[in-house]
Amino acid sequence: MAKAEKKAKKPTASKKPTATQSMADQNVNTKNTVTEDDDLSVERKLTSLYKLQAILSEIDKIKMLRGELPLEVQDLEDEVAGLQTRIQNFLLDSKDFETVIGQERIKITDSNALILKYKEQLENVRNNREFDSLSKEIEFQSIEMELAEKRIREYTTESKKIKDTIAESKALLIERQANLQSKKEELDEIISETKIQEEGLREKAKQLETTIELRLLAAFKRIRKGTRNGLAVVYIQRDACGGCFNKIPPQRQLEIKQSKRTIVCEHCGRIIVDPQLAGVE
User: Fold this and answer.
1) How many structural domains are present in the chain?
2) Separation CA 212–CA 222 (nearest Å)
3) Residue 137's domain spans which residues?
4) Residue 20 above 50 pLDDT?
5) Which of 268, 195, 267 is nearest to 229 (CA)?
6) What's the pTM value of the predicted model, to 2 decimals?
C-alpha cells in the first residue's frame, strides 16, 4: 500500500523549451531592441543637428550685428595700401625726373663751355675749312642746348604734375586712414561686446560636432553653405518646410514626426525635423 502511494505521488517532469524555440525568442527580442535603438539613434542625430543649427544661427546673428563693417574695413585697408604704393611709385618717378633734369642741365653747361672754347678758336683760324668746322660745332652745341632746355621744360611740367598728384594722394591717404581708424574702432567695439558670447557658442558647436557622425556633419555643412540664411535644419511650419515654405504632404509629415530616418525637403534640400523635436509647441 505504501509503495503504491509513492508511485502515485511521483512528480511529473516539467516540459522544457526546445533549443529552437529559445533561439527564436532571443532573435525576436534582439530585433526589437535593435529597431528601438536605431530609431532612438536617428532621433538623437536629428536632435543634435538641430541644436548645432540653433547655435550656428546665433553666431550668424552676432555676425549680422557687425553688418558690412568687416567688408568696409577690408576695403579701406586695401585702398590705403594701394594709395601708399601709388605714392611710393610717384615719388620714384619724381626722383627720376629730377635726375634726368639734372643730367640735361649738365649737358647745357658742357655745351656752353664748348661753345666758348670754339669761339676762342675761331679767332685763331688759319683757313676757311677750320672756320666752317668750328662754326658747325658751335651750331651743333647750340642745338644740343636748345634740346636740353626743351627737355627740361617738358620734364619739369611732368614733374610738377606728379608732385601735384602726390600731394592729392597724400591728402586722400590721410582721409582714408582716418576713416579706417574710425571703422576699426567701431568694429572692435562690437566685437568686444560679443566676443565672449561668440567664443562660448563656438565652443559649444565644436563639442556638439564631435557627437555627430562625419558623413552627416559633412552633409549638414554642405547644405548650410548652399543656403542664403545658413539654415540647413528646419522644422515643419504650418504644414510646410521651414526653409523654403513649400507644402509637405501629410504622409511625409508623418514620417518626419516618427523621426525614424533623415528626411530632406524635396524643393530646397534642407533637413526637416518635427517641431516637437525642435522644442517648438
Assistant:
1) 1
2) 15
3) 67-195
4) no
5) 268
6) 0.52
